[in-house]
Specification:
This protein is an alpha+beta fold and 160 residues long. It has a domain at 20-53 and 72-142: Aldehyde Oxidoreductase, domain 3 (Alpha-Beta Complex). Helices cover 28% and strands 38% of the residues. The chain is elongated and about 50 Å long.
């Protein structure tokens, strides 16, 4: 199954540093990502709880054994939608800071594909906002995933 073709984008991380505003980091990049950058960004003296979600490439799926994934992004729209999602989280919970990082390109098994981090005065808000952030990201952000299987087949995966 195909996916919509991406239009022009923001390009590499070298042209876009990711800071949307003082309390929100959004980055869609071909470069490696991880918890350290997100944790450093969301650190805040008013935070009593910080929650970080890391999505990684696993070695299997319902289609069979996986050798890797390819992510494609409509970068400009993905960044815009992630910033809107950040706004939604800040409206719903008393967050200190939030970060959304997502890779595109070819990723091997074990590599981090997505990071969502939220800090808040209390752990419940941090957990709830982080969970909402990853669920909405997977549902609404124009980033597409293609699985490469051991069998040599590759296919676009919808809604995951």
């Amino acid at each position: 199954m195909g996916r919509p073709a991406p239009a022009g984008g923001l390009g590499s991380a070298a042209r876009y540093d990711g800071r949307v505003r003082q309390n929100l980091l959004v980055r869609v990049t071909a470069d490696a990502i991880g918890a350290d950058e997100a944790m450093a960004f969301v650190a805040d003296p008013g935070a009593g709880g910080t929650c970080v979600f890391l999505g990684t490439v696993r070695d299997h799926s319902s289609g069979g054994a996986v050798t890797g994934l390819a992510y494609e992004a409509w970068e400009e729209q993905a960044v815009r939608r992630l910033a809107e999602l950040g706004d939604e989280l800040f409206e719903r919970w008393p967050l200190c800071k939030a970060a959304f990082l997502h890779r595109f390109g070819e990723l091997a098994v074990g590599e981090v594909s997505v990071v969502v981090a939220c800090s808040a005065p209390h752990r419940a808000e941090a957990f709830e906002a982080c969970r909402r952030g990853i669920e909405q990201l997977k549902r609404d952000v124009p980033i597409w995933k293609k699985e490469h299987l051991v069998s040599g087949e590759s296919s676009w995966v919808m809604g995951s």
